[in-house]
Here is the input.
Amino acid sequence: MSNTHAPSQDMPPKGGFSSIRYERRLPKKGPSGLGMFAICGGIMAYGWYRLYLGLDERRELQRENAWSRIHLVPLLLAEADRDEYRRKVAAVERERETMKDVPGWEAGKSVYNGKRYVPDVIANVPIHQQPGFKKD
Here is the structure.
């Protein structure tokens, strides 16, 4: 079999093909770089402002705590002195009761021979650790 007509070949259209767009043409979305920088700067400035306000508040609370402690010191000292006096009186009474059979014993007399004041050391021992404690 023989083919009598010439083979057909695809040819470009008259005037040629249209040009192929190969460059990137992305739509512009969002703020520019300068706009994003300005937004981040504004957020950071607001954060630093709030931090400064918080530091001022904390400084004021520390000042208030310091002054409240300063004003409470005399009250706490007076309370400690009253407690020490009460314990001293109770200790002298216990000593008087314990040593009542010893002739010449003076209850509450200092064991030191000097005239200098030496405060008593009164240990606050819990009741269950005191000698002679019996658990029921």
Observations:
- The helical segments are 33-98.
